[in-house]
Design a protein that fits this description.
- Strand 4 and strand 5 form a beta hairpin.
- Helices cover about 15% and strands about 30% of the residues.
- Strands 2, 3, 4, 5, 6, 13 and 17 form a seven-stranded mixed β-sheet that branches.
- It has one domain.
- The protein starts with a helix and ends with a strand.
- Keywords: Signal.
């Protein structure tokens, strides 16, 4: 065998051995795939005095972006009250931060409110999920922060390693499997719509929403299997695109509304915990979640505060 032939054979062996040790790179999931994978099973409490006022919907469920007519249109045609949840994803070198926003046309009460003290048009509350990029396709779920009016609540999954930081951890998340994925569960109040972890108890009359990818209308205020669709907050002509639309918003992150208290509801970039410190400004849960999480928790391990991408900034 000639020298050139021997060199060629040796080179092919070296290349084959080298390639055998190379692991194929995992496909990078899209934001839509990430949001779908971790989307929570959502327990929506309802009040029997007006069940459908607690159904989820899109902000533009009535085919316009005028937020001042959503209260009036809420019960005009219930076929438009399809389960919809907005999502956004921002990314650091160590984590994905996913925000899910749940919208209702009314924040309401079951008693008269002649002085507009307890009710308002439009209502959006939500959830932040913290997911570590651990080398698997969809990462490892590590923590959750929920929004209930002007308070945020902190939770960890079973076996979670995060500990109390500036805020005390409020409990352990109940995980449920849907579509082959163990995912967090959330609970949302009737009428005022504050969001917390679901504690595992039967909520009584409630709509249970599942992330099927198709928005469905509940058959009643006690429908235990209703699909919801995910809508990207940053979609073309979507919620973020209307952030400076004065028909939709009265100010930065504040919906325009004229039923009950005027202009009293906020989007994710307007949410604020009233007592977590002046350095954690309004909107950070969505716009700078890494900063908020690093303050709320300790023992996060490797945790970057710098963004690879963040469409809020």
């Amino acid at each position: 065998m000639g020298m050139l032939a021997r060199i060629a054979i040796f080179s092919s062996i070296v290349i084959s051995v080298s390639l055998a040790g190379v692991q194929p790179a995992l496909a990078v999931p899209t934001d839509a795939a990430l949001a779908s994978h971790w989307a929570p099973i959502h327990y929506q409490d309802t009040d029997s005095s007006d069940y459908d006022a607690d159904y989820l919907s899109a902000v533009d469920f009535d085919a316009d972006w005028d937020a001042r007519n959503n209260w009036e249109h809420q019960d005009d045609n219930l076929a438009r009250m399809t389960g919809t949840v907005y999502y956004s994803v921002v990314e650091t070198s160590t984590h994905w931060h996913l925000v899910y926003s749940f919208y209702h046309p009314r924040d309401w009460e079951d008693f008269p409110d002649p002085f507009s003290l307890y009710t308002h048009e439009n209502d959006m509350e939500g959830v932040l999920l913290v997911v570590r990029k651990d080398g698997t396709e969809f990462g490892k779920f590590e923590a959750m922060v929920t929004v209930a009016h002007s308070d945020f609540y902190s939770y960890i999954p079973p076996g979670g390693t995060y500990t109390n930081g500036r805020e005390t951890i409020d409990g352990t998340i109940v995980m449920q499997t849907y579509n082959g994925v163990s995912r967090p569960t959330t609970f949302q109040e009737a009428k005022g719509h504050g969001i917390f972890r679901w504690n595992g108890a039967d909520p009584g009359d409630a709509v249970v929403y599942f992330p099927t990818g198709t928005g469905e209308v509940p058959s009643s205020g006690n429908d235990r299997s209703v699909g919801y669709q995910l809508v990207n907050t940053f979609a073309t002509a979507g919620l973020w695109a209307h952030r400076n639309d004065t028909l939709t918003f009265a100010g930065w992150g504040t919906f325009r509304g004229d039923n009950g208290q005027d202009n009293a509801a906020n989007t994710a970039w307007g949410w604020d915990d009233g007592n977590d410190g002046s350095d954690l400004q309004r909107g950070l849960l969505a716009t700078d979640p890494a900063k908020l999480v690093s303050a709320y928790f300790n023992n996060e391990g490797s945790f970057s505060l710098s963004y690879l991408r963040n469409n809020y900034l």
